[in-house]
Design brief:
Radius of gyration: 15 Å
Largest sheet: 4 strands, parallel
Distance between the termini: 10 Å
Helix content: 25-40%
Shape: globular
Strand content: 15-25%
Structural class: alpha/beta
Strand order of the largest sheet: 2-1-5-8
């Protein structure tokens, strides 16, 4: 039986794709099991959209988080003030295309990211303040029926996967 695939932010499994050139390796038994089961499809939506490594940090700078960006009412800027909204939208669309290719029903994305945040993103003021909200990729995947969790919700994600029986 072919096991269902799970989309995971590549930084969480050790790929050096984050804005500072590093990763956010999250060493967890559930991730290791999913890797052993051949379930994991990894990618970085920001890199898929054309972001360089390293790159200046970026934040959603308008109210409405990922939803506003997808609706054309929000913007993402990097710390230098450059508008990088299109890059993030392209990355989110690429991530959705990959998810559709593998019939993905569940994703584990990096919290706080303007792309992948599922509960929190940074405020858009580049001062380290987090606010409730979702990133662009999370918003798009969720709207397409993919259940998104962050790296601190692996037990919850594993339970959800078992309920799906896939």
């Amino acid at each position: 039986m072919i096991k269902a695939k799970i989309f995971i932010s590549s930084c969480l499994v050790g790929a050096n794709v984050r804005y500072h050139g590093g990763n956010a390796l999250f060493n967890h038994p559930i991730l290791r099991r999913w890797q052993e089961e051949g379930r994991i499809i990894t990618s970085c939506p920001e890199v898929m959209g054309g972001a360089t490594i390293p790159r200046p940090p970026s934040e959603i700078t308008t109210p409405g988080a990922g939803t506003a960006v997808i609706q054309g009412q929000g913007h993402i800027q990097n710390q230098d003030g450059t508008d990088v909204t299109e890059l993030y939208l392209k990355g989110a669309q690429s991530a959705l295309g990959l998810a559709k290719q593998y019939n993905i029903k569940i994703a584990i994305l990096k919290e706080n990211s303007p792309s992948c945040g599922s509960h929190f993103i940074y405020s858009g003021k580049f001062n380290g303040t987090r606010i409730p909200g979702q990133g662009v990729t999370t918003t798009l995947l969720s709207a397409s029926g993919i259940k998104v969790f962050n790296e601190n919700q692996l037990e919850k994600a594993d339970s959800y996967l078992k309920r799906l029986a896939i």
